[in-house]
Amino acid sequence: MTLDGAETGGSVEAEVWELFDADDAVTDETVYLVAAALRGDEELAEQLGGNASSPQRPAAKAEEGPAPLQAFLRSITVSGFRGIGPKTTLQLNPYRGITVISGRNGCGKSSFAEALEYALTGESYRFANRAKHWRDSWRNLHAGEPAAIEVDFAMEPDDNRSGSSAVIRANWASGAPLADCRRTSQIHGEKQQTVGALGWEQALITHRPIMSYDELGGLLEDGPSNLYDALNRLLGLDEIADADSRLKGAEKRLGGPRKTASDNRTQLIRTLDSATDPRADQVKKLIGRKPYDLEAVTATTLGTATDRAATIAQLRSIAALDAPDAAKAAEVAGELRAAIDAHADGADSVVKAMAAKAALLHEALHLHADDGDGPCPVCEAGTLDVTWRRAAEERLKAMDASTAEHEAATQRLARARAAAEEFFRAVATVPVVDGVELDTAAAFNEAVAAARSAPDGLSDLPAHVESAAVALADAAAAVRTEASKLADELEDAWAPTAQAIAAWVNLETAARHDDGQLVQVQDALKWLRANAETLRARRLAPVVQQAGEIWSRMRHESNVDLGGITLEGAATRRRAVVEGSVDGVPAGALSVMSQGELHALALALFIPRATATGSPFRFLVLDDPIQAMDPAKIGGFLDVLIELARTRQVIVFSHDDRLPAAIRARSIPAQLLDVTREEGSIVTVTPNDSPAQRYIDDATAVILDDELDDMVKRKATPGLFRMAVEAAAHQRFFTDRARAGAVYHESDSVWEEAKTTQQRVALAVTGTATGDVSGWKSYRPHRFPTIAICASGAHNGAKLDRAALTDLRNTVRDIVEGR
């Protein structure tokens, strides 16, 4: 099997258009909306707004310049960052192969991995998932200035360019926070640019080449949605997820008015159920079935076509009842009294005599006018002459004036009487209002009838007008007040319901404006999600296959078989389902795996993403991936690393020596480095080809240190002797077992059962922990005293000096070389 890296396909947009072509039922609206959603927020907004042209199938993109160079890691230089104080460089072999960087926890090795991650991406998985106070302490406590990272890359030659180099730098000003980092890149021979100029931004998402222990755990432990997102990125389907999110956002925005109107309608029905106004039942019928007749609802609510509206209108009319004004009545009564008095001033007899004399004088005047002067035809004593005529005319003139005055008084009296008698004729009685009892209506109507009944005597009429007007005004005020109150009560009782109806009508009107687009967006979203399953299945298949192959190598002694992996749902219901079986019985794989198995599975899923053929990164960095693995998994993990190293620079940070030991045991070519951290955060990187040699160097430093107390030397040195001898025995034992074909985890189990230094030397020398090594110890003079120091320290009088160190070196050499 060869791990070449899963290919995740080409352009997602192009594949979507292929699915359009294959679907005869897809509508133009769905094509337009899905295509616009794939391209961005603005494009979708323009499409929904009707301002966009029909989207076109994406043209095949011509290659713009040479393909991105393939990058190997050459070195990581760090100062003032995390566990590294003064400037330290991690030098790496910049080509295909395995590099293992070992060191105890806290030595600073993971700081190199975090520095690489931050320089490449401007963020860190660990930083992003820790509390603020932890992120704020990113500067080294002992030497936080200057804080800088420099990552040197070697570029693999291709058909267009020879090999080159590039560097990414991350620098912080004095006292600057983590986020205020200046990140730049520079290709050899070219000017300095942003990190984005390398063209790796998308690749760092799709083919992320770095994974820490925390991220390995989080991939599967943070829930199925987190794994869904990681695999979605691996498959290059972020565009689908983004388009889904955009369409979902549009659905929510367009569906908001419809949901609000529907929810409001439900509440309105409850309001109508509790209303006693008959209009409530009418409105409930109108909104009981779609399509709702909003005009009829409005007319029923606000118009006068209903019985209740007519009742309120009648009451409002009564409340506006116009009764004769008491002041006006007094004016009419006063005029009548004056007319009566004026008329009574002239007696009828005087008026008649005056009238008769006036008639006689008129005749005499006519006679005189006809016959001239002569004796009076009546008395025959007087003479009708000019003097008489002049006197007669004056008397007649006075009598005519008196008669005219009397006639005017008579007419005035007639008018005043008529006004008084007609004063209450225009007052309307209060009609009967259906369904409403007006207690004051009868009294008002009786007051109207009484007012219209004039007394027989004219002299009583003025007083009647005045008293009837006052009584009628009081009755009118009472009926107006009652009618107004009843109308207000009816309107107040209906007003909240009317307002609720009007509010729903407004909401329903607004919702109808977006209903058409809402249906189109929902259809587009449904089509996208259905076809996203096709895309996921198509692209996930090679990843699942490769992950299964990797898992099969790493699952030593695990009873969990990995089955299929599917991505289900979307948005908040998205999840990745990992199928499997336990001892042949189907089960959810994630629920039955141990911590080590989960990490092994996470690696199996991560590696195809990081090693996909489209990745520009020729390196793969794993920070402490074996921390939770048992020995059985380490052997399988090493098998995977060997296969990956055929095409990749594989860099592994490890907190213990198990992986380097396995590499030495199998004689696998690899760069083995050791990281140590001294006082003041001084970090050093040294070759780690032989752990035994490291312990010898430590013992040498202790023994030859003149400033150390002799008691300290006698306490510390034997332990270093013991670790050096056991490290040599470990290397020899595992190497021999590997050559014999034994699997690593079986050898590890045998090794762990041997508890003493002599038992472990016996394993290396004889192959069994109970083997007799007495002859081997006595064969060379340096062996026995060295093993004695390992066993009982310096209690037997052994000297801890240069000679003892020489014996230690020779003993270690004998064990390793099999002498």
From TrEMBL:
InterPro entries: P-loop_NTPase (IPR027417), RecF/RecN/SMC_N (IPR003395). Residues 72-659 form the RecF/RecN/SMC N-terminal domain. CDD domains: ABC_ATPase (cd00267). Belongs to the SMC family. SbcC subfamily. Heterodimer of SbcC and SbcD. This is Nuclease SbcCD subunit C. It comes from Mycolicibacterium rufum. The lineage of its organism: Bacteria, Bacillati, Actinomycetota, Actinomycetes, Mycobacteriales.
